[in-house]
Every structure is written in structure tokens, then in C-alpha cells.
Amino acid sequence: MSYYISRLIEASEREEAELASQKATQVEDTRERLTPLQDRLARLLATIPAEVLAGGVSLSALQVGLKGRWRGSCHPGELGVALRKAGFVRRRQWSDDDGFRSLWFPTEK
Asked: Looking at the structure, do residues 86 and 46 belong to the same domain, yes or no?
């Protein structure tokens, strides 16, 4: 009988630890979503190598790395405004063989 009780206690402790971990993850996700987009974008851009930024980044590539405020990815319009505030410029290529492409480049300082 004591073996059964000890197994129940172990299972209960594991479940409590798992719930605490899920709660911590949920709190962190909420904190991340409620952080202003400018700050989240600055953190994301800091992780991208300068060579990649100099070659241009697409809006969709950045959008994948940023969570939206309520669900999914952040809104492309809001991301475009945040990129402009961060000193990026959008350049469109219409005449390339690859078709239409729009990339964001950091402005030269």
C-alpha cells in the first residue's frame, strides 16, 4: 500500500511541476506579446547578421519571428511602420526575372 501512495505522490509532484512550467511559459508568452513592437523588432534585428541585413530582408521573413499581439504573426502594416521607424527603407524590384520582390534595407548612416 505504501508503494501505491508513494507512486501517487510522485505522479502528483510531476503534474504540479508540469503545470508550473506551463504557467511560466504562458506568462512569458503574454509578456512577449504585450512588449511594444519596436522593442521586439529591435531584439529580432539584433540577432540577424549585418551581411544578411545589407542584402535585404523580406517582410514575411521578419513577420515569422514576431508574434502578434493576440494570435498568429504580427500585422504586416504595423511591421512596415516599425521598420521605417527603425531606419529601414523598402525597395521594390519589378523588372527582375524572379518577379515582384520587396526587400527592406537599413539606411546608410
From this structure: yes
Q: Are 84 and 107 in contact (CB under 8 A)?
A: no
pTM over 0.90: no
Domain that holds residue 15: 1-34
Whether the pLDDT of residue 14 is over 70: the answer is yes
Angle between helices 76-85 and 37-47 (to 10 degrees): 70
Task: Please report which confidence band the pLDDT of residue 70 belongs to, taking 50, 70 and 90 as the band edges.
Answer: low
3-class SS of residue 32: helix
> How many Å apart are CA 60 and CA 63, to the nearest integer?
5
- Residue 59 CB coordination number (10 Å): 15
E runs forming strands in the chain:
57-58, 88-93, 101-106
Contact 83, 63 (CB under 8 A): no
**Are residues 59 and 27 part of one domain?**
no
Which of 61-64's residues contact partners 24+ apart within 8 Å by CB, and which partners?
Answer: 62/104
